[in-house]
Amino acid sequence: xxxxxxxxxxxxxxxxxxxxxxxxxxxxxxxxxxxxxxxxxxxxxxxxxxxxxxxxxxxxxxxxxxxxxxxxxxxxxxxxxxxxxxxxxxxxxxxxxxxxxxxxxxxxxxxxxxxxxxxxxxxxxxxxxxxxxxxxxxxxxxxxxxxxxxxxxxxxxxxxxxxxxxxxxxxxxxxxxxxxxxxxxxxxxxxxxxxxxxxxxxxxxxxxxxxxxxxxxxxxxxxxxxxxxxxxxxxxxxxxxxxxxxxxxxxxxxxxxxxxxxxx
Length: 264
Known about the structure:
Elements: H1 9-20, H2 25-35, H3 37-40, H4 46-49, H5 72-78, H6 82-106, H7 113-126, H8 136-142, H9 146-150, H10 161-171, H11 174-179, H12 181-191, H13 199-225, H14 234-263
Helix pairs in contact: 5-6, 6-7, 6-8, 6-10, 6-12, 10-14, 12-13, 13-14
């Protein structure tokens, strides 16, 4: 009896291409390549990897599932898939924050007061531990270190952590930036040692502040619009949203420039 895998390669490739671009693209593709060796060959085809739909909301409680260097997410990112790189940038931010939290627990008495507040917040968000240095998150993050990438002679597509963070910063909406603001400042703290006056740290904090402010003001605007008795009072809120968006654009650019200088 004929099966789907008996189809001509060109037709099968076209079907797979349609599948990976569908709303459930990444999840569906991961399923079929894991259950059938004949489909697994498509996990090596860059033209397919480049268009896999990775528009997935990163659930913090499940972020560990993405911490695998041989995962479909990493393969697609290295193939130039911007949506995958965007998601992987988020995973990098969370993973570095996870390691920062681990270091803080080891030398808690040496923490800066600002670090204490940030890392206490991280502890509540992540509710996780990294028991030792050879934990999988350490191996995962090591894969994206510049020295590891530059020493790799096998693949020229290996990505450095700050390249992925830049993709996130470039493509993230203010809601994305607000959601990841704590992790962004923790990422900066983990990879730099310039202290509270460090330009990159300051810029990342302002980026988070303006993102959070826009989200808060938008929520206020929705509440005002839902109450007819407040009609006419939206102009001031819209004005403040516009100001915050202008500042967000400015500090997004500053953060990217500073990221390039400090880590690039």
